[in-house]
Amino acid sequence: MTVEKMAVEKMALAKAINESLRRALETDPKVLVMGEDVGKLGGVFRVTDGLQKDFGESRVIDTPLAESGIVGTAIGLALRGYRPVVEIQFDGFVFPAYDQIVTQLAKMHARSLGKVKLPVVVRIPYGGGIGAVEHHSESPEALFAHVSGLKVVSPSNAGDAYWMMQQAIQSDDPVIFFEPKRRYWDKAEVNTEAIPGPLHKARVVREGTDLTLVAYGPMVKLCQEVADAAAEEGRSLEILDLRSVSPLDFDSIQASVEKTRRLVVVHEAPVFFGSGAEIAARITERCFYHLEAPVLRVGGYHAPYPPARLEEEYLPGLDRVLDAVDRSLAY
User: Fold this and answer.
1) Per UniProt, which keywords does this protein have (predicted)?
2) Is pLDDT of 6 > 90?
3) Residues labelled as active-site residues
4) What domains, with CATH codes, occur in the chain?
């Protein structure tokens, strides 16, 4: 067996993040992991399982239930040269820390004219699909993408999760790392010795000629199912995994749309003022003379997240995305 093959292992997305955190803790003594129940319990999704046992309570820290305090403490630690990785237990729990994130974490670099760097990673399990209620199934990525000074990323598979976490920790700028909780148990090959591409570069998941599907995080897998269903009807769909919501790789989207001439953007977050709106506007400006149909968006509704029995109606599914594909191709 070659060294390269030994470096490749099939693992779940949650396990990939765990292994990436472990590697960072081993490599850099300034890396810390903090959050509610991340230590002894290993996190509610067991993403940090075993890390406190192996690295101790001074490196993997169980915090009080106080999100503002968690992020505020991380900012102080970063000012002293540490690289904290903090976990917000569920997406909807981030809002008590929103003030710290947008007024301090995002602004310190500009406020200090570049003299102060805050290498903080804020991990947020996000999205629905697990039968949980409001505050446990939100998709607030657009709120953070709107704030200058923050990088906002979301992996869709285990391989990206491993390497994007490494790159986020190594970044001198704060990174909001959205983890698609419904994909935590999806497995894929992870090459721990690979040379990763740029953190904010989109990736073509599937080549196609008739229409481009753009997605990130939990919706990439759904788009693959949509492309499979469309292929049975003779339609060739290209899938672009954005990987990063801020900054956005508009060049890759434009290159795909200039080829397929149609675009459907899919995300779990509400369509109203969602990230798809910015993509639609910018691609319409860039590709006006290439488009053969208006850019369409598929996402959640502009309503509070519903109880579990209505979740499938709220979230984008196969039929809703296929309907958008049909409408686009009908032009």
Assistant:
1) Oxidoreductase, Thiamine pyrophosphate
2) no
3) 136
4) 10-191 (3.40.50.970), 203-330 (3.40.50.920)
